[in-house]
Amino acid sequence: MDNKVKTGNKQEISLLIREYRQYLMLEKSLSENTLEAYMADLEKLLSYLSVADIYVLDVTLEELQSFSAGLHDLGVCPRSQARILSGVRSFYRFLSLYDYLETDPTELLESPKQGFKLPEVLTVQEIDRMIASIDLNKKEGQRNKAIFEILYSCGLRVSELISLKLNDLFLEEGFIRVEGKGSKQRLVPVSEKGIKEIRYYIPDRNQIETKKGFEDILFLSRRGTGLSRIMIFHMIKEAAREAGIQKNISPHTFRHSFATHLLEGGANLRAIQAMLGHESVATTEIYTHIDRNLLRSEIIEHHPRNIKYRNKGSYKV
């Protein structure tokens, strides 16, 4: 990146954008979806700067604050504002890192305060009802049942689910290999129920005429191609409707439920972090919203002071 940008014409801005895209793709190893989200956030800023006649390398903190205020005025919710500003910070960090700028104007740029919104969670009974609602007489019935079990048993992202391959299955050992964000691989344990449903599904899969390029994909459509995110989304919405569940759920709801149920069952937060493929345990801590009564009973049962007095018979739960 020796060709430094000196002026503000469109060609030079295009060069910056192209190099930034390469940086995200090659050095940050972002997935295609995440990369496109970052580029969309940058486009919002560039549109604002173009109208205001401000060159991208001359922008000040005050001008970025005006951009942030403009998002608010347009009715963009705080959560989306924060995401857009995160993308803007990423761009200016790149510019500073590669000496296009001496100082990063986003260093003191604050994100809007946003209320903490817990993800929707299904109960075990609701998940069982959804799985029971699947019609196994349909050709895709066993496939859908296996998908639901793997989503819940392993806490996968939908992108991880649809990219699972046959050679990612280690069913005898009780694991599957998952490729997560940034092409990072992890081994995730699978429940006995999940293993059973996959094994029931494999004969159905083997009857499908697979299209070129999808020979090793585990979950196939009727046409022999891989499944899309939207197909999984509709599948889950349909099952929820059939099960009479009114909650606003998505494939990610199974992931939230997986983590919440593990935590409530006493699993270690670090173990859940490894299972989910979170880079930081701080991300996993969203699942610590366990019931206060459960938390209290856990403390009373396991804290040494309580054990001491309970053993003496002078303290009762």
Explain what this protein looks like in three dimensions:
55% of the residues lie in helices and 4% in strands. It has 14 helices and three strands. The chain has a three-stranded antiparallel beta sheet with strand order 1-2-3, with no helix packed on it. α2 crosses α4, α6 (141-154) packs antiparallel against α8 (192-206) and α6 crosses α10 (251-264). The longest helix is centred in the first third of the chain and has 21 residues, at 32-52. It starts with 9 loop residues before the first helix and ends in a 5-residue tail after the last helix. 26% of the residues are buried.
Short key terms for the protein model shown above:
14 helices, three-stranded antiparallel β-sheet, disordered N terminus, mainly alpha, 317 residues, elongated
